[in-house]
Structure formats: structure tokens, C-alpha cells
Prior knowledge:
By secondary structure, the chain is an alpha+beta fold. It has 4 domains: 13-122, no CATH class; 148-252; 258-348; 358-449. 34% of the residues lie in helices and 26% in strands. Strand 1 (38-44) and strand 2 form a beta hairpin. Helix 2 (23-32) crosses helix 3 and helix 5 runs antiparallel to helix 7 (185-197). The radius of gyration is 24 Å and the shape is globular. It starts with 12 loop residues before the first helix and ends with a strand.
Amino acid sequence: MAETSTETTVWTTDQVMALAPDASAQRAARGMAGDRAWLESGLSSTDDVPPTVWGLCQGSGSTPYQTAVDLTEPAFKCTCPSRKFPCKHALALLLRWSAGSVTDATAPGWVQEWQSSRAARRTGPTPTSPAAPGSGSTGGGGRAAPGEKAQARRADRISAGLDELDRWLADQARAGLASVAKSGYAHWDTMAARLVDAQAAGAAGILRRTSAVTSSPERLLGELARLHLLVGGYRRMAELPEELAASVRMRVGLPIATETVLAGPAVRDRWQVHGVRDEIEDQLTVRRAWLRGASTLRPLLVLSFAVAGQSLPIDLLPGTQIDADVCLYPGGQPARALIAKRHGPPARMHSVAGAAGIEANLRAHAAALAEDPWLDYWPMTIDAVCPTRDGGAWVLVDPEGTALPLDPASGDPWRLLAITGGRPTTVTGEWSAGGLRPLGAWSEGRLVRL
């Protein structure tokens, strides 16, 4: 991998391409990464300017586009009219830097002005972002915690909504699973809408996800039982241990203001990004970024959300690690985190922290499930496994012959098979009731995003 003379670790081409909003942006960036379009470029890092790649790119007009990427977050600037984020010019500039074509240079005035304006904004109020459905968080700062009367009214509404859910669950049990499986979408959506009206959005999210497993009687029964357990947990929340009570509040959907989380103790580590997955949920795009501490080996979940027309943050690149302080939300396994402070730009991972065998990963999942029975996803970092067919299904097999099923919804793992070449390697992924969804594979000294 090429390195400049600064201490900033150069990203790989795969990491740059992972930032692209679509395939057409990737193609356009590759075509623009040559020398012909770039009048000048440089990498600057001073006390006033964090590590920033910048350049002037000649477009169709007479004035070149001013393009810059702050590598710390990353953050992007370009004067082109493109609505894509990041645009092809920013991606092409990063590709040039990745290839070693960008050298150290003093930042011009327009880069310094951009970074100064960003620094000024960071000292101001934190903007509000969409709340996560069932995340137990407001999702953004600047929202004050509700007063005691408002909290009491909300608690009453949630209790009434969960009581109605419990009666609805009893009706499903009396009707039988065969009848429930034949019910249409409206049957589930009506009850979910009532839970949303009762301000129990988390329970509504679990119910909507349950409607997707009606073809499997075993999974359907398990999901309905989890909802019944959530109702019982909420009714007895005062009797529960604090961590379990916090998990119940989070799964029901009680909000926690971002400023409350950031006021808690911070945990500093070199947090490795083991995988990122996007999903559409309740008309929001939800991004799950799985982190693990290089020293603590602690797994973390960083969630971000975007409504239609908005872009998701792209500050966590699989295969990189960040030296950062994180603050943890109460409850839930693995802990959801907010990045409170970064102590430098992302650096390339040189090993995968916390890699263990299949049995050890399953034991860790079982322990987490005991603490949080409503756990949907669990990050796994599995050492020395290779993909193979087991009848008509795909599995990961370790040297002891233990097999772990892959989630059929993720498709056939041809890319993983091509990367490994049938040889054992470390695989990162997301474990759920459907199986493992591979997110990354260690190959030739780097984590390749799947």
C-alpha cells in the first residue's frame, strides 16, 4: 500500500469505493482519477487543518471544481453541481491519494476557510437527526428530556398499548399458528400502528419483523413469545435488575436524549470497523456499523438513519480503526454507542481483534441473549473458516468440522469464496435467527468488505 510522508494511513481502493453512493459513481470516479483532469492536489495536515486531501479538478466549465476530503471523519466538499454524496470528484481525488499520486502540500485558502467554518459549526448546537424506530433514542442532539408529567403520560400510553398487544397475542395463540400464518399484512400492520400511536415504536418494530417469518412456525412462535416476554418485562420493570430494565425500556422504544448519553463515561480504544450493513426499516434506511475494541475486544453497535432523500453518514469504513472515545447507551446487547471524540484519522487494520472459533462465538451469543432476550443481531468474528456447501445450503466450516449456517437471504457467497479461494480465513459477520450474513473477510493483510 502506498504511503505519503504524513502519518495518515492511506486507504485502499476498496475502502474508497465503499464510500460511493452507487455503481455509476464508482465508474465515473475511476475514469477521472488520472492526471489529466487535476490541475493541482495535495495532502495537508497542520494545527489548523486536520488531515485533508484537496484538489482542483477541471470540469466542463472555465472554473475548476474545488474538491476536498477531511480524512478524520471523513467529510466532503466539492463545488460541482452533483447531487450525489460524495460526488465523483471527491471519490476520484481519494483514488489518486490511495494510488500515491497526491503529495504533501500547504492547504490553499479555500481549504482553510472550509475547515474553519466546520470547526465553528462543531462548537454550535448539535443538529437533530431522525429518531430510530425502536432504537430507544431520539437519534440526535438538541432535544431536551421530557418533564415528569410528560413521562408519566407516555408511560400510561405505553402500558395501555402493551396491554392491547398482550390481548392480541392471546388471540393469535387461540387461533393457532396456521391461521396466523395465513393472515395478510393488514392484520399485522393494524396492531403495529396502534403500538406506534401508544408511543411503543420499538415493540411495533419487533411486531413488523415478526410478520416476515410467518412461513416458519418455529420462528413465528418464538417471535410471538418474545413479544409476550417484553410485555411482561415492562409490567415488572421495577423488579428487574437495572441492566435488564434498561434493555426493556430500549426494546419498547423509550427515548434517550443524545446529550444524556454523551454525559456518561467514555470508553477509549482503537475501535475496529468489522462490518457495515444497510437495511430499509419503517421507511427509513438503517445503517448498522459493527465495531470491536482492539484492546478491550468489546463489540459495539453504531446506528445511523436516513429518511428518503437523505444520505447516510459514511464516517466508519470497514477495515479501518479509529482511536476514539465512545459513550454507551444503557441496556441492549451489544451496547449501542455514540462516538464522542476522535483522536485522529482512521487507520488501516493490521489484524482482526477478537477472532475466535465458531463454538466460542456461539457461546458469546448465548451469553448476550441471556442478558437481552430481545437481541436480533450479534456480531461475530470467526477465525479459520471457509465457505462450503452442505446439501443445498451454504455454511462456514472450521478445522474441527463445526459448521455455521449462512443466511440464505444474503445470497450465495461467491465473493467470499473468490476471496478465500477455499482456504480458511477470518470472517466477520452479523448473526441472526436466519444464519450468518458475512460482512468482511481477511485477505492479504486487509479486511475486504463483502
